[in-house]
């Protein structure tokens, strides 16, 4: 005889009838004592957690990271110890500006957030599909994001807000050039690269520090959508990227990325900066490959779909603060801001004990003196002491062996003008110049299209930036907008 599972309340009490409310007479009214109905409605009312304030629309999968090349001369991180070593991962892709129900094919950077469940804790690399970003000081982030969201009155997306902000933030030019290029509308999540974007650090077993940039190279190759296809799919299949990723994994076509690093010895930061005029910790700049070529580290493969979207993807919480021994931060101001912002966001969005949700929980033992809080369900430290130092030999103690080498910092505390640190035009211009003629044509058409209807003073301010990056860049956009190109000589 087949075994039928009995429906119960959340407290395990069998439910006799899940279709008909308990009423006084066949036509009602409903009785308050129908606690199953009440529990059902109350829980339903609380089904949503707030969506992420950015990167709300996303898709994710589990997989494995396998080391293919020995980089132990740069990092002592346990996950890199031996060639062939495997570490479980969870990767969430996303768009940035749209709400949770928005279309996957919108022109936007794509989030590329990886959680490595290492034996020394979770390493989260929450990057994008672009090597640079729009801004380089964290104090500008909330303002920048407001321009990407909806106008406070019309509740519409507003190109005027976007270009008003960008035209007064010349450091955005490099990322704008990427965003409006073909790469701004990737064909799903499998056919794009991922980047840690910031400069991070590596520390090796003898305490030497290196500055490092992380690159995930798509082994499926780069594929982008034409503007026409992106717009069509936004209407026909707004969940295009979610479907593509889920179906590929479901049919065992496992997507893979080659993880590579660019490595700069700590002492070279100053000389490289002198030589190039760029700050190696500036998130709006890349390190040219000719200076720091890619070094392969391993292969990341996604091979398992989540069982439950809300439990695993919506509750997933990544934080740039999560680095493991052998991997560290850098002075990048944006990274420093993010070290604070994410844990704080998770405490608000998911709750005090969000790190205990299975997708966020370390897969190695963890021992903290943090206690209590809403929804504590990991035993809460049991009968062990909840303070430190203490007299209990078996209680968790700090381990000085994990201390990082000291980092020399200097300078007077002040609010330094970030706009004068490194010119915003050369690298944006270089990117424009490496594009083929047809790619430049699409880039400048995309930009002109996105600026249509924006007030002329904003357009003129922004055109100066394009022209300073490359006169052909400025001219082409001006021509397509039917306005005079600025004279920046
Ligand atoms: C998500 C803040 C810059 C990549 C988020 C979230 C916040 C945030 C609050 C939502 C977190 C959540 O609720 O789970 C910031 C701040 C930044 C910044 C304050 C600058 C100071 C960046 C940069 C990148 C980036 C530069 C990429 C290089 C991401 C990604 C997610 C995200 C990928 C989604 C993670 C996921 O899939 O859950 N950011 N962000 N952010 N951010 Fe940022």
From TrEMBL:
It is an enzyme of class 1 (oxidoreductase). Pfam families: Catalase (PF00199), Catalase-rel (PF06628). InterPro entries: Catalase, Catalase_3, Catalase_AS, Catalase_clade1/3, Catalase_core, Catalase_haem_BS, Catalase_immune_responsive, Catalase_sf. Its EC number is 1.11.1.6. Residues 8-396 form the Catalase core domain. Keywords: Heme, Hydrogen peroxide, Iron, Metal-binding, Oxidoreductase, Peroxidase. Its cofactor is heme. It catalyses: 2 H2O2 = O2 + 2 H2O. Decomposes hydrogen peroxide into water and oxygen; serves to protect cells from the toxic effects of hydrogen peroxide. Belongs to the catalase family. This is Catalase. It comes from Caldimonas mangrovi.
